[in-house]
Amino acid sequence: MRIAILCHSSAGGSGILATELAMGLSLEGHDVHVIGERPPFRMAGGAPEPIYRDLGDSPPTQSFWGQVVATVRKSFAIRPRLSKPAPRPGSLHFHELLAFEYPLFEQSSFPTLRAANTLATLIDKYKIEVVNAHYVIPHATSALLARDSGLDCRIITTLHGTDVTRVGRDPAFFFTTKHAINASDSVTAVCQYLADETRSTFGISRPISVIPNWVDCGRFKRNPDPKVRAQYAQPEEQILVHVSNFRPVKRSVEVVKIFAEIAAKIPARLILVGEGPEKKACIDLAISLGVFGRLLSIGPMANVEMIMGIADFLLLPSEMEGFPLVLLEGMAAGAICVASNVGGIAELVSNNENGLLFRPEDGSGMADSILGISRDKPRAEALRANALRTVATQYTPERLIGQYSTAYAALCRAGA
Ligand code: GMT
């Protein structure tokens, strides 16, 4: 199939998932065109330079394809014994949004319209059959605009979380979000909670199928090498990790409070990975609580598996979540996940079996249970083993990327 994927380029879950999906679909042999404001965060190892900017006919440079193929191979841990074919060169493209500056426009960018026009150009040029819009605003709207310019393609919209629970329900976006969901040919959500929440928020009855997110257990795995661990912490320290975009919905400041309670009782180290509006407040709080010396702050990491593989605990006390990639990745890598029981999290984490769930505001409960588990090795190992079993059996890329391509194929058949 010829597929276009629209996604946010920032280091957020929806863009990461869309990138992994694009790379996986290209492995299945499809022609995939990713469209965004700039190359998405995890594409080609976070390739910094803009690529394939002008939709021109000149082939992408060799070095770019070299990077993409290497990343796809690494991402899926292809070994000779696997029969999966290597991606055909040329099966994965990135297209930056076309842009035009004009003095009349106060806001020069108009990303919704530019995405629509870029997409329409691609549909026309590459005979795209299916467009998968990740995150409703603005991508599903852009896809509908592109199709309404008289082009023949199917639109499938994937809901991720705040596109419904925060942005979509806001009066600023309510009607456009509802319209985009209703007018898409097909809609998927990353968890059942989000599918149900979408229907009740917008009062709609259309089917929304659930395709959960996944994790590559070949890439996210425990790193038993003490030398690697020693780069981040003393041998006796428990390593707690929070990977986030540090928006208020993640309640990242709470992580520092929880950590301070723990660090008052046992040797511990907190690693904060990512960037966002509340990062500074986290650092300031760590200073005022006297734990700054035990904190390591790192920006967004394309290879976050390095940190996940040495973490003892992963903290996610969010106010709301869809189906967090960070939990899937922590579970695969052996970090015991301590999270709030919100959104779709309980569809992945069973309390006391493969992780720990709390009310978002129960920071002390989270701290107490981390302290308890850090002294109870058999329980820690049981939680880790159960978590790995969950993700390795139910949330594999092969199975779930296959569900996307099956959904695309069904749409194409229905529209033929
Ligand atoms: O940051 C993004 O790009 C999307 C982000 C969000 O704020 O909606 O993440 C959502 O989508 C992810 C991928 O499906 C999920 O892992 C997250 O749970 C979900 N986040 C929230 O709903 C807060």
Q: What does this entry look like structurally?
A:
This protein is of the alpha/beta class and 416 residues long. The chain has 2 domains: 2-214 and 396-415, 3-Layer(aba) Sandwich (Rossmann fold), CATH 3.40.50; 226-394, 3-Layer(aba) Sandwich (Rossmann fold), CATH 3.40.50. The protein is built from 15 helices and 13 strands. The chain has helices at residues 13-27, 62-75, 111-126, 136-147, 162-168, 174-183, 192-202, 226-230, 252-263, 279-288, 305-308, 325-333, 363-374, 377-394, 397-415, and strands at residues 2-6, 31-36, 92-96, 130-134, 154-159, 186-189, 209-210, 238-243, 268-273, 295-298, 313-316, 336-340, 356-358. The strands form 2 sheets. A 7-stranded parallel beta sheet has the order 3-2-1-4-5-6-7, with helices on both faces. A 6-stranded parallel beta sheet has the order 10-9-8-11-12-13, with helices on both faces. α4 (136-147) links the parallel β4 (130-134) and β5 (154-159). α9 crosses α13. The longest helix is centred in the last third of the chain and has 19 residues, at 397-415. It is globular and about 65 Å long. The two termini are 13 Å apart. Residues 46-66 and 73-84 have low confidence and may be disordered. Ligand GMT binds next to α1 and α5.
Which descriptors apply to this entry?
Rossmann fold; 2 domains; six-stranded parallel β-sheet; alpha/beta; binds ligand GMT
> CATH top level of the largest domain?
Alpha Beta
Overall average residue pLDDT: 89
Helical content band: 40-55%
Please give the CATH architecture of the largest domain. 3-Layer(aba) Sandwich
Number of helices: 15
- Give Rg in angstroms: 22 Å
Strand order of the largest sheet: 3-2-1-4-5-6-7
What is the N-to-C order of secondary-structure elements (H for helix, E for strand)?
A: EHEHEHEHEHHEHEHEHEHEHEHEEHHH
Q: Which small-molecule species are bound to the chains here? A: ligand GMT
Distance between the termini: 13 Å
| Number of separate domains | 2
Task: Tell me the overall shape.
Answer: globular
Percentage of residues in DSSP E strands: 5-15%
Low-confidence stretches: 46-66, 73-84
- Reported by name, the CATH topology of the largest domain is Rossmann fold
Number of strands: 13
Q: Supply the helix-strand structural class.
A: alpha/beta
